[in-house]
Amino acid sequence: MIIDWKEIASKKYAEIKNEVWNIEEPLTLLAILVWNNPSSLRYIKQKKKWAEYVWINFKLDHLGENTSESDLLKKISEYNDDKNITWILIQLPLPNHIDSKKVINLINPNKDVDWFNEKNQWKILIWDDSWLIPCTPAWVMEILNYLKIDLPWKIVTVIWKSNIVWKPLTMLLINSGATVISCNSKTKDLSQFTKISDIVICATWKPGLLSLEMINNKTVVIDVGFTIIDDKIYGDAKFDEINNNWNLITPVPGWVWPLTVANLMSSVVKSYNLNK
Ligand code: GUN
After folding, report:
1. How far is the CA of 21 from the centre of ligand 1 (A)?
2. pLDDT tens column, 51-70
3. DSSP label at residue 27
4. Closest Cα partner for 83 from 31, 28, 20?
5. Does ligand 1 have an atom closer than 6 angstroms to the CB of 89?
6. Minimum-distance ligand 1 atom for the alpha carbon of 89
7. 164 CB under 6 A from ligand 1?
8. Which residue segments constitute the domains of the chain, with CATH numbers given?
9. Among 136, 224, 257, residue to substitute to test ligand 1 (most atoms within 8 Å of Cβ)
10. Residue ranges of the chain whose pLDDT lies below 70
11. Cβ contact 24:30 at 8 Å
12. SS3 158
């Protein structure tokens, strides 16, 4: 059974619009896109659309795949000093010849709306509600909250792909009292963990990773996968068989954009309030 996301997203956008309406200064979000990866292009298109919808100025610097690491670092330093740019995000992943960590850590932590810079990320360990939450983990927690899932009583398996999702999400779940099992691509017999889980969150970007036989009848599946093959988007879970069995599941496509992007816009407003 599909979890209805429209209600969560539209409520969130209404709240953001209301907050931005009351801010008198212009808010400008700059996105740096290096290569022409199809997922990144789609993400950026959605970020632009929804930023403009909530009256946030959106600027895109599309550098091209041949950009060197040093050119990218130089650009970031310039944008760090540019008073007209309130926030900077680098669309990930970056091409292999660029060290993502170096790049992300150069972003001024006050302009780091993704909350990926190490100076911000460590704060996830000692959670404080006033800080930002990277936008994908934020929407996952929002869904669990929307479903009124009492996390202290639940077993949650997180199957990871990257630091963007896995580490912050694992910490958020631990902080909320859930019993968390952290798996990865090398975990032996994944189904021994997923089968006993009340919630499985998969973010490996490996289509077909999670099948119906790997979960139990009540497992809620939150699918953060987002792989494009021949212009079609796939999640990590075998959606049809899990959905037909009446398990609750988030569909792909459908989730990643509306709520990830809504949470990004919400981070813009929160960050404005943090820095003013
Ligand atoms: N690529 C996939 N998800 C994200 C995200 O949340 N932020 C950025 N900057 N890049 C991404």
Report:
1. 26
2. 999 999 999 999 999 999 99
3. -
4. 28
5. yes
6. 9
7. yes
8. 25-111 (3.40.50.10860), 135-257 (3.40.50.720)
9. 136
10. 161, 255-257
11. no
12. strand
Residue 11 tokens read as 């409520």
Q: What is the pLDDT of residue 238?
A: 96
Q: What are phi and psi of 199, to 5 degrees?
A: -135, 135
pLDDT for the residue 6: 78
Is residue 186 flagged as an active site residue? no
Please identify, by atom number, the ligand 1 atom nearest to the C-alpha of residue 134: 6
> Is 90 close to ligand 1, i.e. is its CB under 6 Å away?
yes
Q: Collapsing DSSP states into helix, strand and coil, what is residue 88?
A: strand
Give the Cα-Cα-Cα angle 37, 42, 45 (nearest 5 degrees).
125
pLDDT at 50: 93
Exposure string (b/e) for 58-88, b if CB count within 10 Å is 16 or more?
Answer: beebeeeeebebeebeebbeebeeeeebbbb
Ligand 1 center to residue 134 CA distance, Å?
9
Cβ(201) to ligand 1 under 6 A? no
Strand 87-90 and strand 57-62: the pairing is unpaired
- What is the predicted pLDDT for the residue at 72? 98
Q: What is the pLDDT of residue 255?
A: 64
Q: Report pTM.
A: 0.87
- Quick one: pLDDT at residue 128? 74
Phi, psi of 70 (to 5 degrees): -70, -35
